[in-house]
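ok, trying the design again with the full structure, not the truncated one.
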């Protein structure tokens, strides 16, 4: 309702795997993988100063990372997503 104070947001959730990989490489801590539909998950990060600017930089193309390290981070993150989804589905692929 109007005039009510909202609780401060303590986390940032995104569903873009590449952006999540970038944030990890940029020093932000991935705190959770949250189930979504099918093979999709949301990546949850602690709300930390600068994270929204880092996300904006990523999507605007202003972010710079080492391509090889970025590729490895994406591969690692995909593995974590597979493990999480398999656990949610009772071990089925």
């Amino acid at each position: 309702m109007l005039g009510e104070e909202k609780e401060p947001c303590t986390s940032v959730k995104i569903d873009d795997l590449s952006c999540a990989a970038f944030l990890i490489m940029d020093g932000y801590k991935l705190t959770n993988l949250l189930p979504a539909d099918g093979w999709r998950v949301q990546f949850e990060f602690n709300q930390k100063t600068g994270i929204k600017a880092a996300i904006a930089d990523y999507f605007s193309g202003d972010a710079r990372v080492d391509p090889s390290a970025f590729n490895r981070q994406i591969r690692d993150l995909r593995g974590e997503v597979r493990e999480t989804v398999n656990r949610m589905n009772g071990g089925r692929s």
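Keeping the full-length input from now on. The longest helix spans residues 67-88.
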